[in-house]
Amino acid sequence: MSHDRDLIQRVIQLATENVRQGGRPFACVIAESRSGEILAEAANAVAQTGDPTAHAEMLAIRQASQTLRTANQPVDGTNGTAGEDMAGYTFYILTVPCTMCMTAMEYSGPDRLVYATTRKEYAEFYRDDRRHFAMETLTAATELIIAQSKLPVEHCPHPESLAVYRLWQELNDPQ
Predict the structure, then answer these.
(1) How far, rounded to the nearest angstrom, does the alpha carbon of residue 167 sit from its chain's CA centroid?
(2) What is the spatial distance between Cα 13 and Cα 21, in angstroms, rounded to a whole number?
(3) Between β-strands 153-155 and 112-117, what pairing exists: parallel, antiparallel or unpaired?
(4) Helix (H) or strand (E) holding 90
(5) CA atoms within 13 A on the CB side of 48
(6) Distance (Å, whole) CA 70 – CA 66
(7) In contact, 67 and 39? CB cutoff 8 Å
(8) Whole-model pTM?
(9) DSSP category for residue 96
(10) Using CA atoms, how far apart are residues 107 and 7, in angstroms rounded to an integer?
(11) Can you give the pLDDT at residue 52?
(12) Mean pLDDT across the stretch 25-33?
């Protein structure tokens, strides 16, 4: 779409601001698919809140759902009630999502998912391995979900996307 690059640029801005404020390098924008008008946007708030589910995608979905439900957005009933159905909207994120966020985005039924970079591209600057999985394991699980999903997922590379991860490394892992 014509506004994909501008909306990915907004994701990069949100993620950069978040990193500068002590957060992690992730953000999400949910926009109307045709016009590009932003419905909701959020940066990852896990570091700030201690809530492991406070990923940017999850926060943006909660915000968008509340807005759509309050507006009593009409739905056709094939993907839940007002607030649950994101038909007519596109998700823009900085990188391939984790499995939790991918599943939540699929569940909400948007038109598309667009991301700017891959884990492989940013791995030298940022890793978030955990007790029960490494980044490579998470990537493999998400790739399996994406391969089986009906949700169109598109890579929209942006030259500034890796700068967010470089900044995070500079501020959090000085060599």
Answers:
(1) 19
(2) 12
(3) parallel
(4) strand 89-95
(5) 16
(6) 6
(7) yes
(8) 0.94
(9) P
(10) 22
(11) 94
(12) 97
